[in-house]
Amino acid sequence: MDDSELEAIRQRRMQELMAQHGMTNQQNSGSQKAQEDAKMEAEERRQLMLSQILSAQARERLARIALVKADKAKGVEDVVLRAAQMGQITEKVSEEKLISLLKQINDQTSKPTKVTIQRRRNVLEDDD
């Protein structure tokens, strides 16, 4: 084979590989886009349900909690949504009910703290 023929074959093969790689990237980006869209849609549905269940003040308090502790706010949202789906919530949740729910969840999840002070007698006492 001639050098020019080899170079032409290499160029075609390189273009084929680039085209295949470009197509796989497009497919991956398409599936990632679909996953992101599904997540966004689920989050929108979740927020819509919460706006129907919670009063304006309760939503505001939950938003402030989410700024500080996002995982705690997500847990409270899950509890409220689950209760609404089971039919335990018949009216909008007020801020007071949300506060009591937060206290209950905090009592269940908090670990009692214990402080032990150990003093070193050798250093503190002077027998001279």
UniProtKB/TrEMBL annotation:
Residues 22-33 have a biased composition (Polar residues). Keywords: DNA-binding. Pfam families: dsDNA_bind. InterPro entries: PDCD5-like, PDCD5-like_sf. Residues 16-43 are annotated as: Disordered. Residues 34-43 have a biased composition (Basic and acidic residues). Gene3D superfamilies: PDCD5-like. GO terms for cellular component: cytosol; nucleus. GO terms for molecular function: DNA binding. Transmembrane segments: none annotated. Belongs to the PDCD5 family. This is DNA-binding protein DDB_G0278111. It comes from Dioscorea cayennensis subsp. rotundata. The gene is LOC120262441.
